[in-house]
Write a structure and sequence with these properties.
- The chain is built from eleven helices and seven strands.
- It has 287 residues and is of the alpha/beta class.
- It folds into three domains: 80 residues, Conserved hypothetical protein from pyrococcus furiosus pfu- 392566-001, ParB domain (Alpha-Beta Complex), CATH 3.90.1530; 94 residues, Arc Repressor Mutant, subunit A, CATH 1.10.10; 36 residues, no CATH class.
- It has a five-stranded mixed sheet.
- β6 and β7 form a beta hairpin.
- α6 packs across α7 and α9 packs parallel to α11.
Length: 287
């Protein structure tokens, strides 16, 4: 009986201790006073560490290429300063793994750094494909620019999933509508030019200017010159405007179109601005 009573008292003491109760001699039991550093904070069930081996990338992630040099630099940063921001993951029952929503670069760098565990923010519930893509686009756009065509495909996929137009996508991602429209225009370029853009042969701004042209031959010619670095970005823009029938912004001169009585139109351009007489019997009226 004595042993049972002692055992019960010991268990009770352990239970009380686990609940935060303590006894100081004859004094009544009091809850311990929390430390100042513990006041005003509480644990979160959706934050914690996950084994790196149990995390996999999302196959629908807009970013498909990661520069090795950038990853090595980030891995060195992790070793020296630790992980400053957790990655965001969701549980996938079919894969029986944690799938990355955002933070794939940090996960890859953690592997290079030899880490076995990584800090994660666990998404509660099952996010929709549109929510996942939106978060991934925001992450990539804010931290490091996507390649031009990766960005364009990301916008296009998000718009199709949500049934949005370009303005709605821009508002959701907090970017300008012109940024979305310029990116989407790249998807209409011929595949040969797209391959040059993806390879980095044609700068992003030059690619946007080439996409403004509607003639495929003109696009190919201008893309070849831009890829060979025969044209600067400003020269590419100027050439695109000229082939599109527009003068460069801020250029001096004039462009005037006349309509003849027989239905013909005559366009006159000059390097400098000038006035012309509006008399009956002018060249335009006599055509």
């Amino acid at each position: 009986m004595t042993n049972s009573r002692q055992a019960l008292q010991a268990v009770t003491a352990h239970v009380d201790e686990s609940m935060g109760m303590r006894a100081d001699g004859p004094s009544p039991r009091l809850a311990p006073v929390p430390l100042a550093r513990d006041m005003g904070r509480q644990p979160r069930r959706d934050y914690g560490q996950v084994e790196v081996a149990r995390v996999i990338p999302d196959p629908s992630q807009p970013r498909t290429e990661f520069a090795e040099q950038e990853l090595q630099r980030l891995a060195a940063n992790l070793r020296s300063k630790g992980q400053l921001h957790p990655i965001r993951v969701r549980w996938d029952e079919s894969a029986n793994k944690w799938v990355i929503i955002t933070g794939e670069r940090r996960w890859r760098a953690a592997q290079l750094a030899g880490w076995e565990w990584i800090d994660c923010h666990v998404h509660q519930g099952e996010p929709s494909p549109a929510e996942i893509l939106e978060q991934q686009l925001i992450e990539n756009l804010l931290r490091e620019d996507l390649r031009p065509l990766e960005e364009a495909r990301g916008y296009d996929a998000l718009m199709k999933l949500q049934g949005w137009n370009g303005k709605q996508a821009a508002a959701a991602l907090h970017v300008s509508p012109s940024k979305v429209s310029r990116a989407l225009a790249l998807l209409d370029l011929p595949e040969a030019i797209q391959r040059r853009i993806e390879a980095g042969d044609i700068p992003r701004v030059s690619a946007y200017e080439i996409a403004k042209l509607k003639d495929g031959v003109a696009q190919e010619n201008l893309a070849a010159q831009a890829a060979q670095r025969n044209l600067t970005q400003r020269q590419t823009a100027s050439a695109a405007r000229q082939r599109h029938g527009r003068s460069a912004p801020g250029s001096r001169g004039m462009r005037q179109t006349f309509l003849a009585e027989n239905g013909l139109t005559v366009t006159v351009t000059a390097r400098r601005k000038a006035t012309y007489p509006r008399h009956r019997g002018s060249a335009a009226g006599s055509l």
